[in-house]
Design brief:
The protein is of the alpha+beta class. The chain has helices at 5-16, 72-78, and strands at residues 32-38, 41-43, 48-49, 56-61, 67-71. It has one domain (5-78). Strand 4 and strand 5 form a beta hairpin. The model has no long low-confidence stretch (mean pLDDT 79). The structure holds zinc ion. The site of zinc ion has 8 residues, from loops.
């Protein structure tokens, strides 16, 4: 599902807690785009799906498109329960 602005902000806040981890391990880039919240879709734009599981949020390197995924619910819980289910 698309990321709402408030969810985007929560992910950015989460990433900011770990500045030593932010550079991309592939290209060294420091800009990460929050791509999607996923409960079953891997890339909703490409129509590729995988099975369900824990809700995750995907961030993508703006330079080389390396993908990182985080469990979404702990991030939402830490912010007061702004998750999607
Ligand atoms: Zn990169």
């Amino acid at each position: 599902m698309p990321v709402k602005p408030e969810q985007f902000a929560l992910v950015q806040q989460h990433l900011a807690k770990f500045p030593q981890q932010q550079p991309c391990p592939i290209c060294g880039g420091k800009t990460w785009n929050v791509a999607a919240l996923e409960s079953g879709l891997l890339m909703h734009d490409a129509g590729v799906s995988v099975g369900g599981g824990i809700p995750t949020v995907t961030v993508v390197c703006a330079t080389c498109y390396f993908v990182r995924r985080f469990a979404w619910m702990p991030i939402a819980r830490a912010a007061g329960g702004a998750g999607h289910g």
